Amino acid sequence: SLGLHAWPLAIATPPLLVAATGGLGALAWVAFKVGALSYGGGFVIIPLMQRDAVDVYAWMTAAEFLNAVALGQVTPGPVVHTVAVVGYAAAGVGGALLAAVVAFAPSFLLVLVLARRFEGLRRNETALAFLGGGGPAAIGAILGVSVPLALALSESWQWAVLAAAAAALLLARLGVVATLLGAGAVGAAVALLGGPLP
Q: Which residues are CB-neighbours of 47 under 8 A, at least 6 positions away?
């Protein structure tokens, strides 16, 4: 039998070997991490997803990744949609389907396995303490993601849209969907007028 300290290595070795092979194995590993670690919502996992998709495997550029994040935010299930776009960039339609299914699997399996225990977890002091500590960390991760995403902006009009969107959300309390649709309309207008695109 495995020693107490050896079991994490035994569990982690197969996915790490698959990830090291590249291709669909790497894509599946990235999608699994996204699905398993998306505590606090999709924004928390964006730095990890961006590092893998842009820096490690070079499936897409930083600007393309920013577009994937934006597309995910205007659709239901933003995390799965964003990772599906990453999968498409990595391996076409098959990659998109693989990434979406693998990213969805951890939460689906967690609900299947723990559904009967949810009521007990809601009253469990340890679980509540974990959520109490994880919440502020999730907010910090969301703030930390904003800087690298903003640095991916390459055109001056994009910075103006960023400032206007921040004002709309923070000062005017406009909804996220309305703000995203308005920003998208500005981008479409720039394209139609022949302006510079990223």
A: 141, 144, 145, 148
